[in-house]
Amino acid sequence: MTPYVGQAIRRKEDPRMISGRANYTDDISLPGMLHAAIVRSPEAHAAIVSIDKSAAEQRSGVVAVLTGEDMAPDFASGLPMAWDPPGVDINVPDHWPLKRGEVKHVGDPVAVVVAVDRYLAVDAAEDVIVEYDPKPVVVDPEAALEDGAPLVWEQFGTNKTHEWAVGGGDVAAALEAADVVVEQRVPNHRTSGAPIEPRAAIGEPRAESLTLYSTTQIPHIARLLLAGMLDMPEDKLRVIAPDVGGGFGAKLQVYGEEALVLALARRLGRAVKWTESRSEHMTTSHHGRDQIAYVTLGAKRDGTLTGLKVRIVADLGAYMQLLTPFIPELGFPVMGGCYRFDAIDVHFTGVFTNKMCTDAIRGAGRPEATYWIELTMDKLARELDMDPLELRRRNFIPKEEFPFETKLGIVYDSGDYHGSLDRLLENFDIEGFRREQAELREKGIHRGVGFSTWVEVCGLAPSRAVGPQGVGLQAAFWESAMVRVHPSGSATVYTGTSPHGQGLDTSFAQIAADRLGIDPENVDVLHGDTDQGPWGWGTYGSRSLSVGGEAVAKAAEKVQAKAKRICAALLEASPDDIELADGRFQVRGSPDKAKTMAEIAFAAHVPPQELPAEIEPGLEENSFYDPENFVFPFGAHACIVDVDVETGKVQVVRYVAVDDCGPAINPMLIDGQVHGGIVHAIGQALYEQIVYDEDGQLVTGTFVDYALPTAAEVPSFETDRTETPSPVNSLGVKGIGEAGTIAATPAVTAAVIDALQPFGVEWLDMPHTPMRVWNAIHGHGHGNGHGPPSLGEHGMGSAGSGPSSPDEGGAP
Amino acid sequence: MSSAVSVHVSVNGEAREAEVDPRLLLVHWLRDELGLTGTHVGCDTTNCGACTVHLNGESVKSCTVLAVQADGAEVTTIEGMSGPDGLHPLQAAFREKHGLQCGFCTPGMIMAAADLLNRNPDPTEEEVRHGLEGNLCRCTGYHNIVQAVLTAAESEVRA
Ligand code: FES
Ligand code: FES
Questions:
Q1: Would the pLDDT of B159 be above 70?
Q2: Could you give all domains of chain B from N- to C-terminal order, each with its CATH number?
Q3: Fewest Cβ atoms nearer than 10 Å: which of A36, A95, A349, B15?
Q4: How confident is the model over A21-41, as pLDDT tens digits?
Q5: Do A15 and B95 touch (CB under 8 A)?
Q6: pLDDT > 50? residue A288
Q7: Cα–Cα distance, A775 to A34 (Å, whole number)
């Protein structure tokens, strides 16, 4: 019998989702449920002078109108931030679910209205009159670091949040030894996660306890931290993540609204629901990226890399959310990319601005790192007049050298970078392309290709490296699984991960089924309910399979071991002689002596005479798995674009991706993750940007202004894989959820630059909107963010506008 | 609140009557009052298409239609798509081709695609892509959605 692992099994999640029977948070309606609407600041920075609730309170159907001061007794502490790096001070301001005294960005919540109906709650929220005294606003992170800049938080005396550095080798000597040094300022602009399901939360009171239904990626972490905020025992709070309609990091958070609905439910003794509007999502669900990197890359004349020095300014917004200051640093383990260096030195400066906080969005730190290293490699290749792929090949860490310890002390578990690039070029004929490109140019069609040979770090885990003893997250990153075989031989798996589109109900069932000798159809995978299974750390950082899936494998193997003991007793054989083959537990060498899992499970629950008393009844095991290392997926992507030089419009016409995430559990799911990740990155590269104007007003507050790609903007994708198993886990797997997003932005940008070679365009900052591209073609500003900023297209005060060197910009 | 207006709508073949607030959106009537929560809301600006249903056989964004505008009409939602002989070919094709991940856009996508195939039973890939322009998906990158629609079209055309 072929193992279920490796097969493109159709998803167990789908029947409910294609028929409209899924259960998302906003679908839940509880008896007597009230609806909350939030009054939000229209000012980017202001003192709250007064709040007049009377008109709202007088509306019939309004149950409560509460301000930050009113709710002060409800919270023992503010919203949590989880990073406390050894030896580094981070400025962390108070962060209450409803603001007291001052607001720091547009959308900051100041009051909540609770009413019997959602329309009424919104009407009444409009009746709350808040008087503000505006204060000076700062939106540009580099300007925020200058002397005399308005302060977001006066108490710190600076807008700098923290500095953090990592390095290895002597970078000054390495750059000194270089024949060629290229420098580049690389902005990576602010984006939104924008899952199609907006956030929603319901607080439900039940006697002494509370239940939270939430669109969260981290139900167990949310329970722990919210119980602390609400000053209640963790066991009295149950958190349920029902079906969650995409997250992309935007739901890897503990949000004020979750705390609010719980506090309101506790106060009012009734269930309270809040559902985010899309404009609230754009304003107050955390943003991602927003960094400016100053990259210095040195190489010998023959292309051998010597040193890499990077100075990063990260715009963190106005407050610290769960991982806000850590996200820029999260990319650090792969800041040398796939390449060997003599020395690497990276320095981060976090900055407060009057904007929404940034935090993890799909890739989180690693897309930024991949973006600057890949594009700076291209720039170096032009400088050396060398083929960019040849430059990469010369510097790839060779396959034989894995596991490979980088200059940053990180051990890359496995890799075959030449192999994935070779495979890419089997799928994409570069010489043929260059001929075609030349012919098309004759006809006025400007086609370009861009490459990205990338490596990422994922599978968070390992606790020793990431937790308090490591980089200082106040958390651990093992994962749990429970495998329970029922008397009839079907099974339930509980995973501490919390999938929201990844298809883990299916892939985890495949992993368990092979180890239990049953059909995945008969394995039900549960998650996202803190009352149902062991504690777990949730879904993010492409960790679910390599950490959570491995935990499932381990728990299922424990069950298998017990099943073998039971089977041995039933068959009067030695447990060591029992093997699982063709879905049956049989005596090695005599396949006619065998039991099915159903027979064994029944015996485990209703023990027959033959079963010795020392075998405990039941058939259920837990596993808690903390890996020894991260995993390092990698690959090679090629993007082909056409640029309309009349309009500046860029169209992706072809995209070829080779990814390596180890042996496939379900290849269909891998392709799906890669497709989605690539389009997310194409979105950032070409269309999406969160823009604030100089007053801190959000210009891109809806899907009209924040343009997600549609089916019409993107092509079909050509995907292929190499399979280099990770030595870190028994499945050999590495993550794939963020790969496309990490890999694709540099490939798109490089393709646009390649298409525009006849116009001498050497550099372009994302997003490559028609106006920017047109400006670059026509020599206005060279597309490097130096051109006249025009609102709505480019914006002010975002990564992407500003001075061009660290000296001018005040970066460290 | 202005006074309630009565509406008579056939929803998934069943006659429904209600007194509704004139400003009540069709999507909220379907979800909150009829319990048909397969129709989703993803935006405030008629961009995402998560709320797509059929009104008299044609796809509309139910976040942009008032419940009162549906008076006298026939509404079909995702819950009404599978018949006595099982899944609609588009539903089956979405599963077969892995055209969904989180599933949030899926009902709207299927409803939009059904309307597309009604108007153009044998579309090219280009036509499918343009036909679904009004529906956003953040998960799938559209590749498998397009494959699903082409597969459903093929099975229908052959059938
Ligand atoms: S909810 Fe987005 S278009 Fe209707
Ligand atoms: S499947 Fe998640 S938005 Fe389309």
A1: no
A2: 5-80 (3.10.20.30), 89-158 (1.10.150.120)
A3: B15
A4: 999 999 999 999 999 999 999
A5: yes
A6: yes
A7: 52
CATH number at A232 reads 3.90.1170.50
Query: Which residues from chain B sit within 8 angstroms of residue A703, using beta carbons?
Result: 43, 45, 47-48, 136
Residues facing residue A636 across a β-bridge: A453, A658
- A523 shares its domain with A535: yes
What is the span of the domain harbouring residue A752? 165-191+287-460+629-777
Q: Is the ipTM of this complex over 0.95?
A: yes
- Residue A785, in any domain of the structure: no
Rounded mean pLDDT, A269-289:
98
Residues A676-714 pLDDT 10s: 999 999 999 999 999 999 999 999 999 999 999 999 999
Counting ligand 2 atoms within 8 A of each CB, the residue from B105, B110, B135, B143 with the most, and so the one to mutate, is B105
pTM of the model: 0.95
Phi, psi of A334 (to 5 degrees): -115, 25
> Which residue, among B81, B10, B17, B28, has the nearest Cα to A21 in the 3D structure?
B81
Residues 6+ apart with CB under 8 A from A112: A36, A37, A38, A39, A64, A65, A66, A71, A98, A260, A264
**Looking at the partner chain, which of A196, A501, A672 has a beta carbon nearest the beta carbon of B136?**
A196
Q: CB-hemisphere CA count at 13 Å for A418?
A: 10
Average pLDDT of chain A, as a whole number: 94
Centroid of ligand 2 to alpha carbon of A442 (angstroms)? 41
A305-317 and A343-352: which strand pairing? Answer: parallel
In a shared domain, residues A185 and A225:
no
Same domain, residue pair A425 and A389? yes
In angstroms, the CA B85 to CA A207 distance is 46
- Ligand 1 pocket test, candidate residues B28, B51, B104, most atoms within 8 A of CB: B51
